[in-house]
């Protein structure tokens, strides 16, 4: 799909001007419309992005592969001043990857940094939908389950276990405006098979070992106990983290096609008596070591996708 010329009518953004800097209400659909209109006008876009990308602070270099870009710091976006992003690396970026127009949120809103507010932490997904994106690519760092994956592996997500969602913390709860989408959303084939096949072919092309597996999302910020990890392993989980599944759930409500992957930055111990301590510094170091390869993978995948 080629990028399209923008019009407010096409994007359905003519919803008023209700958004005040620190007054963003994640349950108010009109606020999303105003926010989407604000970033489109600020970036002076003439064409719609077709793909949205989310990269957390450990993988912020993904945003640097975008060319002809316009960068809007989160601090300049109304309502975003309340967002906590590690390392102050928070930007919304518009530009190109290959021949495709893209939008990127460089810096994720983690649940444990926002009082477990599921709706607030999925704001970027709804913005992608409103500004014209048809598909998304999202990434994170995760802990690998022994005998499943190893450090530095890149894991393409085939399906997920959304633990907070299973315990009543769905990002779809409390949204009464029907414009948000259907309440009862199917998550079957949430991770688009065609997108995954493209990603696997790209990995072969660039000689990247790409593991395909099941991801489990917990709330964080604490790491999981060995017993919890053994439970996950018993049901087929390959890696565990604290994001993605909530974003994918909202993306499916919005009708977006999804591709997601996790960088395995550490592997866990399943023995309570010999559990290995995990240090955030190790996670950051692993991320730095493989960033170049991940950026090449994303660039080639975006350029190859038909959407």
UniProtKB/TrEMBL annotation:
By its UniProt entry, which Gene3D superfamilies does this protein fall under?
Answer: Nucleoside phosphorylase domain
User: Recorded E.C. number(s)?
Assistant: 2.4.2.1
User: Main EC class of this protein?
Assistant: transferase
Keywords in alphabetical order: Glycosyltransferase, Transferase
Q: Determine the domain of life of the protein's source.
A: Eukaryota
Q: Does Transit peptide appear among the keywords?
A: no
Supply one GO BP term.
nucleoside metabolic process
Cite the GO molecular-function annotations of the record: purine-nucleoside phosphorylase activity
Q: Name one GO cellular component term.
A: cytoplasm
| Family matches, as SUPFAM superfamilies | Purine and uridine phosphorylases
Question: Which pathway does this chain act in?
Answer: Purine metabolism; purine nucleoside salvage
Q: Which reaction does it catalyse?
A: guanosine + phosphate = alpha-D-ribose 1-phosphate + guanine; 2'-deoxyguanosine + phosphate = 2-deoxy-alpha-D-ribose 1-phosphate + guanine; 2'-deoxyinosine + phosphate = 2-deoxy-alpha-D-ribose 1-phosphate + hypoxanthine; inosine + phosphate = alpha-D-ribose 1-phosphate + hypoxanthine
Q: Which InterPro entries match?
A: Nucleoside_phosphorylase_d (IPR000845), Nucleoside_phosphorylase_sf (IPR035994), Purine_phosphorylase (IPR011268)
Q: The Nucleoside phosphorylase domain covers which part of the protein?
A: 51-302
User: What biological function has been recorded for the protein in this entry?
Assistant: The purine nucleoside phosphorylases catalyze the phosphorolytic breakdown of the N-glycosidic bond in the beta-(deoxy)ribonucleoside molecules, with the formation of the corresponding free purine bases and pentose-1-phosphate.
Q: Which family does it belong to?
A: Belongs to the PNP/MTAP phosphorylase family.
The name this protein carries in UniProt is Purine nucleoside phosphorylase
Name the source organism: Strongyloides stercoralis
């Amino acid at each position: 799909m080629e990028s399209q010329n923008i019009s407010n009518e096409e994007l359905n953004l003519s919803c008023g001007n209700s958004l005040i800097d620190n007054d963003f209400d994640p349950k108010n659909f009109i606020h999303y419309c105003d926010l989407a209109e604000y970033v489109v006008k600020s970036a002076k876009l003439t064409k719609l992005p077709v793909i949205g990308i989310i990269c957390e602070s450990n993988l912020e270099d993904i945003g640097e592969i975008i060319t002809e870009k316009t960068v809007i710091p989160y601090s300049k976006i109304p309502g975003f001043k309340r967002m906590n992003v590690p390392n102050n690396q928070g930007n919304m970026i518009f530009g190109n990857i290959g021949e495709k127009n893209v939008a990127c949120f460089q810096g994720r809103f983690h649940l444990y940094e926002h009082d477990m507010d599921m709706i607030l932490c999925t704001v970027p997904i709804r913005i992608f939908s409103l500004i014209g994106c048809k598909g998304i690519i999202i990434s994170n760092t995760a802990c690998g389950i022994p005998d499943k994956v190893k450090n530095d592996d890149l894991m393409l997500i085939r399906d997920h276990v959304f633990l907070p969602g299973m315990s009543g913390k769905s990002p779809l709860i409390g949204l009464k405006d029907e414009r948000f989408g259907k309440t009862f959303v199917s998550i079957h084939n949430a991770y688009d098979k065609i997108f995954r096949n493209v990603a696997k072919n790209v990995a072969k092309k660039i000689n990247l070992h790409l593991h395909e597996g099941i991801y489990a999302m917990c709330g964080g910020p604490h790491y999981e106990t060995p017993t919890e990890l053994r439970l996950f392993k018993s049901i087929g989980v390959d890696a565990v983290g604290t994001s993605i599944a909530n974003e994918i759930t909202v993306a499916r409500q919005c009708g977006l096609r999804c591709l997601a992957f996790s960088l395995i930055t550490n592997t866990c111990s399943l023995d309570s008596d010999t559990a290995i301590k995990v240090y955030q510094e190790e996670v950051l170091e692993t991320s730095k070591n493989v960033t170049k390869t991940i950026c090449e993978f994303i660039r080639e995948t975006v350029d190859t996708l038909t959407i």
